Amino acid sequence: MKISIIALSTVFALGMISSAQAVQGNYGKVHFWGEITESPCDMPPSELNKDVPMGQVSDSNLNQGIKSGMTAFTLKLTNCNSATLTTTKTSFTGEAGPTAVANSFAVKQAGINMADVGLIMTDMQSVKVVENAPVVKPGVSVDEVWTPFNGTHLLEFGAYLQGIPSGTATAGLYTSDVNFSIQYQ
């Protein structure tokens, strides 16, 4: 009987030891990626594909030709370091908006271009009165001069929706995709 108790105790102790061993955990990998560019500045990941929420806009105002409120946004350049390059030239390209809304980018609902609403972009750099902000024409560069061109710089822009009088804007979600490129001189 003593041997049985000792044998049982040994089996029990070995069972406890094996259950205290490590259990397989989680595993995987982390993939880092980016791009090395010929540029005097870095552009953080948050700036590469921006989402700019513009809020809710009244369809009846757009259909009366009233523009929506301005939504400001920036493109942030960091770690700028250049003694010779002091100017940025920012260009915006994308699908053109309706011809009745001059210098606009296309606005889509459910993937279809809206016929009477366009997205207008503005250059907000050093503008004191938002209403005086010059329109950024699609494909035409906006020049900004920096002296000195070191550190962090914010390129400031704005956007609003513009409808036409007697338009046919309808309520619903909308999107507008605009590409940007920055050149340095």
From TrEMBL:
One of its GO terms (cellular component) is pilus. Keywords: Signal. Residues 31-185 form the Fimbrial-type adhesion domain. It comes from the Bacteria. One of its GO terms (biological process) is cell adhesion involved in single-species biofilm formation. InterPro entries: Adhesion_dom_fimbrial, Adhesion_dom_fimbrial_sf, Adhesion_dom_sf, Bact_Fimbrial_Adh_Pro. Residues 1-22 form the signal peptide. PANTHER family: FIMBRIAL SUBUNIT ELFA-RELATED (PTHR33420), FIMBRIAL-LIKE PROTEIN (PTHR33420:SF11). This is Fimbrial-type adhesion domain-containing protein. It comes from Superficieibacter electus.
